[in-house]
Amino acid sequence: MKHAIILLAVLAVAGPSRAGAPPASPHQEDVEHYEGPGTCRECHLGEAESFFHSQHYQWLGESPGLVNGGGRRLGKLNTMNDFCTSPGANWIGNVTNSDGVVLAQGCSKCHAGLGKRPEPVLSREQLENIDCLICHASGYRRDLYQDEAGEPVWRPILWRNQPGLDSVSKRISLPKREMCLRCHAGAGGGQNYKRGDLEYALATCDRDYDVHMGADGQDMACIECHTGEDHRVRGRGADLSGTDVTGPRLACTECHVATPHAETVLDAHARRVACETCHIPTFARTDATDMVRDWSTPQRHEAANKFSATITLEKDVVPAYAWWNGRSRLQPLGEPVRVEKDGTVGIMLPQGSRKDRDAKIYPFKLHRGRLPVLAGERWLVPIAVEEFFADGDLDKAVREGGREAYGRGNFAYDWVDVKRYMGIYHGVRPVEHALQCLDCHGVKGRLDWAALGYGEDPVHKRLK
């Protein structure tokens, strides 16, 4: 990233501070008072403009990784997921229960803006909406407040405490693991609910937990793999529709040789089996992850005084395995659902097969759900989930979602079972904890050989 290179250069040449020791950040002396994003733009206008165009701000990107992308810019803003469904009707605002407790604040909580929706055209208003500190300031926290017009906006929790806010604004650095995990670990409504392999434990883990991020291992930051320029970050997972950087996808061979094993048979496996398959035996090792979310059956939580979908959480989960050649198939909004052989609708499906020489066997979190669909057109319908958490009125939430997505409030709908394959890439274990031969080729091996295109375990077949 251009801003990363600039900041590293500044750190390298920064002179001694007034106390005689080099400052931890050049911003300790360059920033006197933080007065909002404009303070950053005084020196970093180019970086603000580049960030405006990035997927982290736009929540849209080019879609070359989709077999049915059709050249469209796709992302969170115009597709549907099987967790909180869509940001459209769920953007911003405190939703409270009858006790006055805040239950939800909208999808913008994890957007790097101050509350306005991203627009495609660059403007001063949009630049003023960019919240630089959410990714670049250690210890930064924010909450929802009302602006002068009574509209909800994100502000630093220290916005009335200028000395405290100034202190935080001087702790500028490249994004550290805990900064990335602020959003990526808490998405989907709870700790590790969504991704499964992005746990808060990664912020301060050891090598046994993750060989790359462990403090006694490589102690790597996220941006050491997820590199890029001009705020365009590399790394598209199998279930993401848009991407910031086109071209070759991230691969372990960028740092490791293609034949890293001492045994020939293992190197032969590496030609068709992804490294993650053997080196991430399970996921959700600390915090349970959401494996099934059924929106058709609301669940009442008396102690929390709230409603939710019926959610099935699991911990220490064995991945599902499938071929993946780097491309995926999306179920778009506004198109009739495509029903698979098992009767489910694939929200996002990895592409590839045993016959596809570009495909390897990868580990996935196979998330299942149940979502509304228009009775006639068979289009998926997003749900206005935020208010539903408080009042439990599911029918109203579905109709509000339909109004936001399609301009309709009066329609018939029923329910369909859906599934999404989500790539598992984090939590890489050291070699002593990698899968062994019998984990896959044993009598109760974890691979579904028939689903992978084999009649049976190929090792057993050779032994006959």
How does this model look, in words?
The protein is of the alpha+beta class and 464 residues long. Helix content is 23%, strand content 17%. The protein has 14 helices and 13 strands. It has helices at residues 2-13, 27-30, 37-52, 55-58, 124-129, 133-136, 162-169, 177-184, 264-270, 275-279, 385-391, 394-406, 437-441, 458-463; strands spanning 95-96, 102-104, 142-146, 152-156, 228-229, 232-233, 289-301, 306-314, 320-324, 328-330, 345-350, 360-374, 413-423. Strands 7, 8, 9, 10, 11, 12 and 13 form a seven-stranded mixed beta sheet that branches. Strands 1-2 form a two-stranded antiparallel sheet. The chain has a two-stranded antiparallel ribbon with strand order 3-4. Helix 11 (385-391) runs antiparallel to helix 12 (394-406). The radius of gyration is 23 Å and the shape is globular. It starts with a helix and ends with a helix. The model is unreliable at 1-23 (pLDDT under 50).
Structural descriptors:
alpha+beta, 7-stranded mixed sheet, disordered N terminus, 464 residues
Gyration radius from CA atoms, angstroms = 23 Å
Q: Approximately how much helix is present in the residues?
A: 10-25%
Mean pLDDT: 92
Helix-strand string: HHHHEEHHEEHHEEHHEEEEEEHHEHH
What structural class do you assign from the helix and strand content? alpha+beta
Number of helices: 14
Concise structural overview:
The protein has helices at 2-13, 27-30, 37-52, 55-58, 124-129, 133-136, 162-169, 177-184, 264-270, 275-279, 385-391, 394-406, 437-441, 458-463, and strands spanning 95-96, 102-104, 142-146, 152-156, 228-229, 232-233, 289-301, 306-314, 320-324, 328-330, 345-350, 360-374, 413-423. The strands form 4 sheets. Strands 7, 8, 9, 10, 11, 12 and 13 form a 7-stranded mixed β-sheet that branches. The chain has a two-stranded antiparallel ribbon with strand order 1-2.
